[in-house]
Design goal:
45% of the residues lie in helices and 12% in strands. The longest helix is centred in the first third of the chain and has 22 residues, at 61-82. The strands form two sheets. A six-stranded parallel β-sheet has the order 5-4-1-6-7-8. The protein has a two-stranded antiparallel sheet with strand order 2-3. It has 224 residues and is α/β, with parallel strands linked by helices. The relative contact order is 0.18.
Amino acid sequence: MTKTVRAVIFDIDGTLLDSVDLHAQAWVDAFAHFGVTVSHDQARSQIGKGGDQLLPVFLDAERIEREGETIEAYRSDLFKRNYLAKVKPFPGVRALFEHLKDQGLTIALASSGKAKEVEHYQSLMKVEDLTDVVVSSDDVERSKPFPDIFQAALEKLAPITAAEAVVIGDTPYDADAAQKAGLPTIGVLCGGFPEADLKGAGCIALYKDPQDLLDGYAASPLAR
């Protein structure tokens, strides 16, 4: 990170929103509906990936070909019906965004979720007026840990380059995808992934949650 940071690209689930356990339970419920037993911990360890990358962890290729889209659609509807209303932002999200804007930074959201979900989340976090670029799984062919979502964000952020942007995420999949796109990652622990996993994936700094990053902003990689 030799250049001044001009843009921050945020993951959403587990980074800005307390939603990881809810997404995990929706996958457990959806798999159960189709006769597949997956534990909450097993599902939780895969949250951060899109369905295209999560399904192959639990199902063989033949079944994904046959029922993958149906299972994904069922899970999506189930999440909206049973869990979406329970999703809450972590402390300090809007305040952090306001501070970043005050510092002259451009803000992007890059999520493995669907566009409609991301739209709802922006409203929930009250950051529609502070967000410059939004990329969802609807914009790309492959979700994290492939770099497609971050590459799409960089295309929308141009002329800002990868050397002038930082990703903030809560999973090793965020850091892995970011690294493949030439982006450094600041990790947050609020998504529940172990510190060692985030450091092992290459995170350049770790914070408890958005509020902790805001509180420690002056000494963070964003301010250097």
